[in-house]
Amino acid sequence: IKENVQFSENITSIQQLMLADAQTSGGLLISVDANKSEKLIHGLVREKTLSASIIGTITKFQDKHIYIE
Known about the structure:
The protein is of the alpha+beta class.
């Protein structure tokens, strides 16, 4: 994934490996319009979802597909 991801300096090599692990890349993310995100989080919390948080934003493509800070 190195050619598609830009990790910030504060992400350790262990964290990079964990984020790139195929076991964690399926079915874990939901993408919604930014103005609906808080409503979705509240609904997931109300339904006692194990975890619900906003982890990023979708932006215009630059030189990498993914930026991790």
